[in-house]
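Replying to the earlier thread about multi-chain prediction with a worked example.

Input:
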Amino acid sequence: MNSIDKELLKSISDLHSVPEGSFNIRKNGECLERRSTSDIEIISKEDKSGIDIIVHKGVKNKSVHIPVIITVGDLTDVVYNDFYIEEDADVLIVAGCGIHNPTGEESRHDGVHTFHLQKNSKVKYVEKHLGTGLGGKVLNPLTKIFMEKNSYFEMETLQLGGVTYSKRDTEAVLEDNAKVIIKEKILTTENNEAITNFDVLLKGKNSHVQVTSRSVAKGESKQVFQSNIIGENSSFGHVECDGILLDNAQIISIPKIDAKCPEASLVHEAAIGKIAGEQLIKLMSLGLSHEEAENLIIKGYLS
Amino acid sequence: MLELKNITYIVHDEKTNEERAVLKNINVKFPENKLTVITGQNGSGKSTLIKLIMGIISPTSGEIIYNGKNITNLSINERANLGITIALQQPVRFKGLTVKNLLDVASEKSNKISDACEYLSKVGLCAKNYLNRELDSTLSGGELKRIELAISLAKGGELYLFDEPEAGIDLWSFDSLVDLFKTLNDKTVIIVSHQEKIIEEADYLLIIENDGYKMGKKDEIYSILKPEPICKKLGGQNE
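Result:
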């Protein structure tokens, strides 16, 4: 690993060295380093690019890191990762993709992640995306989550600038008492474009989804947030989309809530606007310049 | 210390499509290291005056002189850095910023619990319970108001502006708030308030009414007010 690799890994997965437990580091379309353990097995797929990650029954308080780094231009990396979380397992999964593009050619990573959560299993999934360097840095993560009874999935997705184009699709199907919490934070600048789609099917009784999206769009960038929550059963769904708009940027929020059962309680809240003037006044009254105040508000908002 | 010279603030009234003077030809010197309470009817321009001093709004005409320097055209942060400190009437909420974040910005250092305790305990809050709380809708109006005061103490300064600091503070005893102002007796303090207990602590009173203003030592101004119950004088019903 060279210094750029290390810097990217640190930014997307807070890794300063090789992590504890199971991990798979993918660089420029190939496996750079891997450790598979008896608790969490990592197996290469034979029919296509990608890995199967099996978190065995009852495994608790373990983590698996699967970062992807791209340090070349003119590369399209498509990867299929399947996660099998067996009954009663409780695991932290840290993914993410960092692209440093040294050339003007486009670098692209399409990660298709499918999660199969067996009953009573619990996952915290953290995914950070970052782009540096020249040229196009394109990320199209597709995340599918299948949740059996009483399973729990928490997803934190963070894209803090430099990604020129991203299309993030997340689909979830929830059985009885399954719960999914999604927190998304996105910063776009210059001519970046970020599209987010959430499709959640609340199939089971007492299934529960909460989506919180906070976005900041600067420069000429554009963000589209689309959510579609379907309540087929007695269920709860809450979607909150907040956006801060600066310069000539644009944010579009398209809510769809579809209740097919009288016991389904579905809510969508959205608010988009510039930074509140009173927030700037307060911070400036503490001695910060207009620019410093703006930066602190955005930093807090996306923290 | 602080002098307002011929300050006039005119707004455009959209309903009547006419210009209306909220403040007209105000000439006031705020004595150094004294507590001046500004009081008067609702809508008489008290908060407007505080905002003009802090630079949140600009006067239509007139000058603001602070320590001999004309600060009329200085920005909010330039005035803050000269030692002017404000606690707003309506505290601001921030998604994602904590009490600690704002205390750190205000005091220009990273506050530990023991440091924060110094500021928060003065307003009746326990640092341990509040330091990492976000300044969002999970805090009540009264809590935010106390935190606003604590942040102003953390910032420090030579001239403090408190805009209705008692509003929304219900459970905390009023005496503690008054005691807090007493600790600032080596600073110049200007408080907008309707509360008699706070008015009683003033060295000077500035009464702003719709048709003018009076400024003077508390006892002088008080004697003008006293013949009528103060609340009634200020437009209220209570005796």
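The longest strand of chain B covers residues 18-30.

Feel free to reuse this layout for your own posts.
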